[in-house]
Amino acid sequence: MAGGLGTGGLKYAAEIGAEALQVFVSNPRGWAQSASKPEEDALLRESELPVYVHASYLVNFGSPNPETLEKSISSVEHAMERAAAIGALGVVVHTGSAVTQPVEAAMAQIHERLLPLLESLPEDAPGLLLEPMAGQGAMLCATVDQLGPYFEALEHHPLLGVCLDTCHAFAAGHDLTAEKGVADTLDALVETVGEDRLKLIHANDSKDVCGSRKDRHENIGKGHIGERPFAELLGHPAVAGVPFIIETPGRSAEPHKADIDVLKLLRG
Ligand SMILES: [Zn+2]
């Protein structure tokens, strides 16, 4: 996003051949809420690309620490406002961890605090996209069936969606390389949360083996997932029309462009 959220983001997207964009509206590793620049917001709002916002990595609605919970709520409220201003379709949030408290207490807290936030939003607000994690620690949601209690705690609110990260799912034990591995994972997802809830894919290969619970992304086709599962993903009916976002390694345009080129080839 160097050079401005809109200017920099769209320039980079064009450079790497992106057809969708995910942005951070604040420092992803902090709580500070960045101010907006209306002319930069307008560029994204008026662009043809579907845009998504990724909330801060620090957000955790399952935290037993009241300060973390309050900051999480205010951070996601801010991300939601910013997302609406840039015309984003959704805000991606990590499903979080219970840390030291029982899972039931974390889920009750999500019901009490996150549901009112969803209910305060207008009907046409960007979606809140829950992203299951790789499964380290007391993660509330790693495998796709664990989205069930989360959706229940949020009463299947219409603004709820899912962002499926392939590296996280693989690390959590979904063997996407197995025969029917991709189809089984997607079928389980649809069975758990219903149709049309899958709104975004984070397409990342994995540096680690299936079930490792490690969240280390790799470039597409260069890791333990390999290319074939991405082709299967692209061909599955539950994924029709769902944008793919890469969060792969690389500090220059070259590896990201290569990842996008591979995905474009695989979609046929
Ligand atoms: Zn991700």
TrEMBL record:
The enzyme's E.C. designation: 3.1.21.2
Binding site for Zn(2+) 2: 131, 165, 202, 247
Domain of life: Bacteria
Reaction equations catalysed: Endonucleolytic cleavage to 5'-phosphooligonucleotide end-products
Cross-referenced SMART domains: AP2Ec
Cofactor remark from the record: Binds 3 Zn(2+) ions.
A Pfam family it matches: AP_endonuc_2
Cofactor names: Zn(2+)
EC class of the enzyme, as a word: hydrolase
Binding site for Zn(2+) 1: 54, 94, 131
Binding site for Zn(2+) 3: 168, 215, 217
Keywords (A to Z) from UniProt: DNA damage, DNA repair, Endonuclease, Hydrolase, Metal-binding, Nuclease, Zinc
Ranges of residues in domain Xylose isomerase-like TIM barrel: 10-264
Family of this protein: Belongs to the AP endonuclease 2 family.
Function: Endonuclease IV plays a role in DNA repair. It cleaves phosphodiester bonds at apurinic or apyrimidinic (AP) sites, generating a 3'-hydroxyl group and a 5'-terminal sugar phosphate.
Name the record gives this protein: Probable endonuclease 4
Native species: Actinocorallia aurantiaca
Classification of source organism: Bacteria, Bacillati, Actinomycetota, Actinomycetes, Streptosporangiales
